[in-house]
Write a structure and sequence with these properties.
Two copies of one chain form a homodimer. The first copy, chain A, is of the alpha/beta class. Chain A has two domains: about 80 residues, Winged helix-like DNA-binding domain superfamily/Winged helix DNA-binding domain (Arc Repressor Mutant, subunit A, Orthogonal Bundle), CATH 1.10.10; about 110 residues, NAD(P)-binding Rossmann-like Domain (Rossmann fold, 3-Layer(aba) Sandwich). Helix content of chain A is about 45%, strand content about 20%. Chain A is built from nine helices and nine strands. In chain A, strands 5-6-4-3-7-8-9 form a seven-stranded mixed sheet. In chain A, strands 1-2 form a two-stranded antiparallel ribbon. In chain A, a hairpin with a 2-residue loop joins strand 5 and strand 6. In chain A, helix 2 crosses helix 5 and helix 3 crosses helix 4. Chains A and B meet through helix 2, helix 6, strand 8 and helix 9 of A and helix 2, helix 6, strand 8 and helix 9 of B.
């Protein structure tokens, strides 16, 4: 991690990703300028927070005019490095993997599922959407061949997740999106984000009336 | 929201949900006692943070002895209200809905997918896993009949998400887990958590070397 990435709080990054998704929608609708108050309406993040988040990355917008949607889109895309194509390895071709690979906004942010891996012989050699499914034992070989991905999505059952993490890290992956409800052990230089649906429900459950 | 729920920071709640998932694993393995240092090893949340998070909810553990796994499990379950069955409405019976409904740890935290809704005539009247799939126009009727769920999962395409949110809120839902990449408009008393895979990837992408 370089110095810049160390000092930006993770919640700021999460909101930056949210602003970008919103800006891409607005840009697609040919909206040219927005204010931070507009952004609050679109994202539910308050305007002062939006301005503070941007301030980590320099000067944006013009007083009295607001933010140019195409320019802000371009700059946040560059900050998040989604201005260039990022090949992604997807491990797990089950229901979740299928849902992920078919997510319509992936390509908009230049993520490309470059290869899918599974251990089910009935799936290996076939395609998930239009991407080849390979034997899970071939991760290193396939990635080295032409893909050279640094991002991987783990969508396998818990019992297999650590082994998959070890395999993708070994072949050069430095960022993992993990859907298995386990804490992965990875080297310090690898970033992991966990998505656990049941934990999300538990947080919601807390807010229910007794 | 009562006073207690207002003062607990969301990141604390997220970590509480993570501690619970970990404790349930440990309890299943008949581990009886843990220290905050053990917890750090299992969850990657540092020990001081763990103790601070718990302090929002009272006194836990005993100096020199640690935390009783069954007791801590029981108390956090109660705090998060996952000590009782929570029926959940799932809207969207596609790949994502199938993955969610089949998530093995749902039942462990007493979440029960009570009814599934879709607008696809080929699915309506059939089952997703062992749960009936109803016409999406029947949400209010089905929920009122016997379920009375206050939690809903929205796993439909973006264009349909707001309409679904309106429908579930109208029938008494106060907490929504939303997988559609849109900002839902809901009344103030309704809690929404958004899971957006592409935003997760964008946060990871930020951390990649240039």
């Amino acid at each position: 991690m370089n110095q810049q990435t160390q000092k930006v709080p993770v919640p700021t990054l999460e909101r930056m990703a949210r602003y970008l998704a919103c800006l891409l929608d607005l840009d697609a609708k040919s909206v040219e300028t927005i204010s931070s108050a507009d952004m609050e309406r679109y994202t539910d993040v308050n305007a002062a927070q939006f301005r503070k988040d941007l301030s980590y990355f320099g000067e944006f917008g013009r007083p009295g005019i607001g933010y140019s949607v195409p320019e802000l889109t371009r700059r946040i895309s560059k900050i998040l490095k989604v201005d260039r194509e990022q090949p992604v390895l997807l491990v797990g071709a089950g229901n979740l993997g299928s849902a992920l690979a078919g997510y319509p906004s992936l390509s908009r942010e230049h993520f490309r599922i470059a290869a899918v891996f599974d251990n089910n012989p009935a799936k290996i050699g076939h395609k998930l959407w239009d991407v080849d499914i390979y034997d899970i034992s071939k991760i290193a070989e396939v990635n080295a061949r032409s893909i050279d991905a640094r991002l991987a999505i783990i969508a396998v059952p818990s019992a297999a997740a650590q082994q998959v993490a070890d395999a993708v890290v070994k072949c050069g992956v430095t960022a993992i999106l993990n859907f298995a409800p386990v804490t992965l052990r990875v080297p310090r230089e690898v970033t992991v984000r966990n998505v656990d649906f049941v934990q999300e429900l538990a947080v919601l459950s807390f807010h229910l009336a007794p």
